[in-house]
Amino acid sequence: MAALLRSSRCLAGKCHNHVYAAQVCIRSMASKTHVGFIGLGNMGNPMAKNLMKHGYPVIASDVFPESCKELQELGAQILDSPADVADKADRIITMLPSSPNVIDVYTGPNGILKKVKKGSLLIDSSTIDPAVSKEMAAAAEKLGAVFMDAPVSGGVGAAASGKLTFMVGGPEEEFNAAKELLTCMGANVVYCGHVGTGQAAKICNNMLLAIGMIGTAETMNLGIRLGLDPKLLATILNMSSGRCWSSDTYNPVPGVMEGVPSANNYQGGFGTTLMAKDLGLAQNTATNTKTPVPLGSLAHQIYRMMCARGYASKDFSSVFQFLREEEGQ
């Protein structure tokens, strides 16, 4: 039965300059076999729900059992470990907080690679070091599985509405197989190149996002101090050249927009700790490539400072609140 669930492969010519013939993945676009999902946090939970809405039976696991309850009530099968998921599903998506989590979920004692089936497609949507993605891909390849990195942009709102952007790195001949699943959760699925390039694109995006959010928070704070109504200022910015995602979609000032973390005491959304982590990844890759990123480095310092001053669990747009408190000292 497992053989029937696994996708067929056909012979292809030389792939990525290998001297041997490789088997190229051709998975049925109509296939609605089980999909594994590991990591049911703020992002993973709505992503898994969208897979189910599109008719895919989900087999899930999370280190925190309480995170699984909602999905279980919707009909998902919940298992104890990533290895158990790999034993039951040959297509698995992971959505985890950091590089160490990914390493443990894939290569740990109860990791995916302990029971992965030959021919399995493993898609990691975590934001991690590109070097770790390459390590996981190499480990998976030794066992006959395919690993692709597919980090996301768009936040919790886009995860819930199925409008995420996926940045995908891995073998190009496997992209359509990955896209079949990713389009259930996202509006944009972009192939970036070899394994690790998806992570590279995500790290660059989040560095710009952090810089833009700090700039928006500083601008809004200055305008308020100068006597401008924050809603009026936001309206002007958003019809002018200063417009950006942080000003028109995710404004950091309470009362300016509904349905964003700033309207809910900065709860939910994309945590300050995670932004600091992503900026650390950007800093590391910038150092390794000898790339000057002065604003990225300053943004990293600001978000690390915020983590040390009680903002770790708040949304990253709370940098506005942080700046307001700083001016009062």
UniProtKB/TrEMBL annotation:
Active site: K202
GO biological process: L-valine catabolic process
Domain (6-phosphogluconate dehydrogenase NADP-binding) ranges: 35-193
Metabolic or biological pathway: Amino-acid degradation; L-valine degradation
UniProt KW tRNA processing keyword: no
InterPro entries membership: 3-OH-isobutyrate_DH-rel_CS, 6-PGluconate_DH-like_C_sf, 6PGD_dom2, 6PGDH_NADP-bd, HIBADH, HIBADH-like_NADP-bd, HIBADH-related, NAD(P)-bd_dom_sf
Keywords, in A-Z order: Branched-chain amino acid catabolism, Mitochondrion, NAD, Oxidoreductase, Transit peptide
UniProt GO MF annotations: 3-hydroxyisobutyrate dehydrogenase activity; NAD binding; NADP binding
Record carries keyword Cell membrane: no
3-hydroxyisobutyrate dehydrogenase-like NAD-binding domain location: 196-322
Subcellular location: Mitochondrion
GO cellular component: mitochondrion
Catalytic activity: 3-hydroxy-2-methylpropanoate + NAD(+) = 2-methyl-3-oxopropanoate + NADH + H(+)
EC number: 1.1.1.31
Family of the protein in this entry: Belongs to the HIBADH-related family. 3-hydroxyisobutyrate dehydrogenase subfamily.
Record-given protein name: 3-hydroxyisobutyrate dehydrogenase
Organism: Carassius auratus
Classification of source organism: Eukaryota, Metazoa, Chordata, Craniata, Vertebrata
Encoding gene, per UniProt annotation: LOC113060174
